[in-house]
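User: Reviewer 2 asked us to show a designed sequence for the structure in our supplementary figure. I'm pasting the structure tokens here. Could you produce the per-position amino acids so we can include them in the response letter?
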């Protein structure tokens, strides 16, 4: 009976987010891929990807930078003298190319592609489409920085003013939720448990009214996160904010001051049991007693009650059991490792058509990873960024005539077999700062 009541509340919130409301609401998520396809079609029709593009809003990036489909750029067509007006792919849009394999890691990459039934589906989009600032800086560390005279670490990309504002905003979150350390106060205020305890995240208690208003009030987070302490009592450990995209749009919310807050959007979410059961299709979700949500609102965690070593805005918190390192958490959430066990005990399915010993690597956040493999092993790269990249033998953006993926749109993958022992440098011809090395060592057996 209790479960039924919880579900009812979740349904109200979920349906609001899933269905949207007014006529003036922005287009729905399901329209987004069509918009991208139209844009690509328009580019193809001009036969010139550099044609001036009229942008739909001031903040949008020119569409050619976000052209996910290399075929469109290669297509030959009659030149069109007229400038073409096309829509811009927004931050929340899944890639227009359907990925052929899982990829990405929740909380670590812009896109996450998971296998649902027989299909590969985009299940998460996080952060703006371009390069993101992903620095593991906690609330206490930000407070200490704000109070010190030390020069700010340049990788934070924060001005002194932004840091001051950010610390004030996070302080407001903390002050606003201290009274909810007594969970009975939260329940009396209208928070209702919506998930079980998610490993390294905690249990979510949602406030439907605050979700519905579409307003970011720092002292009134839409979700409170609790963990069960040793005495099996609920202990407040964090907060989460939700902004329905129908009310705030499909571009990444401005949110907190500075660039550290990478808000995320879940797709194909199954709620009512665990928020982590995001890789679900409608039928299996409903059959399992859950509520299927095709697209949830923009969300972000704010860990203002502890010193989260993964950062104040991280999706995960190692202070919430089970005890895992950051690397272990990433590994456990990496959809490209195949198969991969989750901390909750589920094991994701094997994906066919890759050699048994293939190494699958995410191209993430404008970074090419260096890794060591054995001769005869295959490497498969999956582009889980919001922009195209290349895997090109060479360095600093210059090809040396070796292997070359050519342009890999978001969601596309590239496979290369390394048969020779040696060190093979590779780069991205679109982003010369992206450099990696495949170190091929002799077979150990
Ligand atoms: Cu690149």
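Assistant: Here is a per-position design you can include in the supplement:
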């Amino acid at each position: 009976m209790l479960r039924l009541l919880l579900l009812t509340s979740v349904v109200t919130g979920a349906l609001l987010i899933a269905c949207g409301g007014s006529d003036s609401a922005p287009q729905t998520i399901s329209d987004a891929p069509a918009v991208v396809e139209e844009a690509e079609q328009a580019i193809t029709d001009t036969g010139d990807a550099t044609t001036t593009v009229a942008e739909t809003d001031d903040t949008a990036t020119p569409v050619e930078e976000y052209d996910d489909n290399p075929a469109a750029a290669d297509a030959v067509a009659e030149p069109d003298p007229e400038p073409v007006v096309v829509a811009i792919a927004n931050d929340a849009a899944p890639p227009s190319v359907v990925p052929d394999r899982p990829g990405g890691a929740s909380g670590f990459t812009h896109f996450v592609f998971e296998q649902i039934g027989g299909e590969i589906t985009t299940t998460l989009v996080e952060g703006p489409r371009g390069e993101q600032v992903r620095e593991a800086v906690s609330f206490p560390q930000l407070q200490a920085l704000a109070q010190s005279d030390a020069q700010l670490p340049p990788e934070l990309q924060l001005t002194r003013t932004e840091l001051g504002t950010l610390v004030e905003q996070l302080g407001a979150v903390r002050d606003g939720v201290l009274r909810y350390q007594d969970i009975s106060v939260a329940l009396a205020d209208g928070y209702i448990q919506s998930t079980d305890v998610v490993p390294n995240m905690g249990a979510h208690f949602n406030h439907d009214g605050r979700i519905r208003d579409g307003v970011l009030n720092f002292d009134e987070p839409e979700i409170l996160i609790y963990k069960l302490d040793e005495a099996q009592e609920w202990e407040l450990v964090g907060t989460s904010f939700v902004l329905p995209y129908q009310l705030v749009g499909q571009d990444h919310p401005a949110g907190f001051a500075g660039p550290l807050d990478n808000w995320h959007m879940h797709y194909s979410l199954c709620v009512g049991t665990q928020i982590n059961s995001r890789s679900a299709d409608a039928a299996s979700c409903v059959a399992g007693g859950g509520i299927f949500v095709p697209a949830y609102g923009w969300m972000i965690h704010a860990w203002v009650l502890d010193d989260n070593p993964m950062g104040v805005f991280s999706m995960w918190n190692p202070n919430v059991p089970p005890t895992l390192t950051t690397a272990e958490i990433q590994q456990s959430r990496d959809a490209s490792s195949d198969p991969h066990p989750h901390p909750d005990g589920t094991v994701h399915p094997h994906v066919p058509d890759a050699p048994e010993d293939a190494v699958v690597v995410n191209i993430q956040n404008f970074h090419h990873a260096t890794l060591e493999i054995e001769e005869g092993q295959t490497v498969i790269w999956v582009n889980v960024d919001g922009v195209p990249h290349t895997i090109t033998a060479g360095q600093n953006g210059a090809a040396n005539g070796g292997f070359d993926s050519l342009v890999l749109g978001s969601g596309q993958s590239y496979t290369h077999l390394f048969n020779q022992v040696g060190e093979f440098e590779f780069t991205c011809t679109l982003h010369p700062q992206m450099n990696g090395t495949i170190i091929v060592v002799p077979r150990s057996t």
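For the response letter, you might also mention the following. The pocket of copper (II) ion is lined by residues 389, 428, 430-431, 434 (CB under 6 Å). Residues 2-19 form the longest helix (18 residues).
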